[in-house]
Amino acid sequence: MMGEPRQKTILVTGCSSGIGAYCARALKSEGWQVIASARTKDHISELNADGIEAFRLDYADTASITDFHEQAMAATGGRCDALFNNGGYGQVGAIEDLPVAALRAQFEANFFGYHELTRKVIPVMRAQGHGRIVQCSSILGLVPMRFRGAYNASKHALEGLSVTLAMELEGSGIHVSLIEPGAIVSRFRANALKHFHRNIDIGNSVHRQDYQDQLHRLEKQEQSNSGKLGPEAVHKVLRHALTASRPRYHYAVTREARLGVLARRLLPARLFYPWLARQV
Ligand SMILES: NC(=O)c1ccc[n+]([C@@H]2O[C@H](COP(=O)([O-])OP(=O)(O)OC[C@H]3O[C@@H](n4cnc5c(N)ncnc54)[C@H](OP(=O)(O)O)[C@@H]3O)[C@@H](O)[C@H]2O)c1
After folding, report:
1. Which of 140, 184, 188, 228, when mutated, tests ligand 1's pocket best, judged by the most ligand atoms within 8 Å of its CB?
2. Which of 17, 24, 124, 249 is 20 to 30 A from 274, alpha carbon to alpha carbon?
3. Which atom in ligand 1 lies closest to the alpha carbon of residue 191?
4. Is residue 1 part of a domain?
5. What is the mean pLDDT of each run of 10 residues along the chain (280 residues)?
6. Per residue in 26-58, is it b (16+ CB within 10 Å) or e — as a string?
7. Mutate to test the pocket of ligand 1, among 64, 106, 191, 224 (most ligand atoms within 8 A of CB)
8. Total tally of structural domains belonging to the chain
9. Is 142 within the bounds of a domain?
């Protein structure tokens, strides 16, 4: 006798706002068992109020990653069909102004934490014979921009790690995809502004004039969503990465992101980098 198809399970990180908050709810409404993560009790309660199981995870805190994974496996009966590593933030500041601690913190959140959680789910997926790992990268993981060196580096590292992982998992039934969004409506710029003020000596930098442009960009974009796509644009490609029989390695989201990928492919570096350097 044929039973009901089993509910698929997915772990989604960084669900307090933006892309994660949207995708967790959208996936739940599509029938997934979503195990979400956030960093505060209030955000966990908000997710619970919408019927989503949620536990604390901070990528910078190894114990929280272990606890999250254990709680998630208890909630799913030890199954994990998919992982969406999504949580993270942007650290603005010129490379020469960037304290090593701020760079390390950027990598803890955007890179090492992803690796730690991914290593925990791979054995589960190998035992099942299938799985989808989707990494939220950025167009800045492929095309760097000035004054985002820490973030560029963390996402470039994620690209390298994840493509390598995809090749190593070839034939295992586990697929790895990277999503590379351009500007998406979320709390990303508001949060980046906080890290910028916290870690960079803006007023005493040789780049203080350029920093005014960065402050203006972050403040303006925080106030206005014009020209930006909503998180549903990321959810659309996430769904493809999770369900297509042949998911893609890369999903650039937004017209600007796709143009960036194309320009990098077509233009020689001596034209591309000086052009990039003129962008704010
Ligand atoms: N929005 C964009 O334009 C854009 C473009 C390209 C890529 N992305 C990527 O998209 C992902 C989601 O960002 P978003 O746009 O949705 O921004 P967001 O609204 O700021 O959401 C970021 C989420 O990540 C969480 N987070 C931050 N640091 C974390 C850590 N150490 N451990 C675990 N979670 C952490 C945040 O939690 P708290 O609330 O606790 O801080 C929040 O839930 C990020 O990886 C970002 O790099 C965004």
Report:
1. 188
2. 249
3. 20
4. no
5. 81 98 98 98 98 98 98 98 98 98 98 99 98 98 98 99 98 98 96 98 98 94 82 98 98 97 97 95
6. bbbeeebbbbbbbbeeebbebbeeeebbbbbbb
7. 191
8. 1
9. yes
Active site residue 151: yes
Q: What is the pLDDT of residue 147?
A: 98
Rounded distance, CA 213 to CA 94, Å? Answer: 13
Instruction: Determine, yes or no, domain membership for 2.
Output: no
Scan for tokens 């297509």, then name that residue. 244
What range defines the domain where residue 96 resides? Answer: 9-277
CATH number at residue 159: 3.40.50.720
**Inside any domain, residue 67:** yes
Q: Looking at residue 2, what is its pLDDT?
A: 60
Atom of ligand 1 nearest to the CA of 60: 31
- Report the run of H or E that residue 255 belongs to, with start and end: helix 255-266
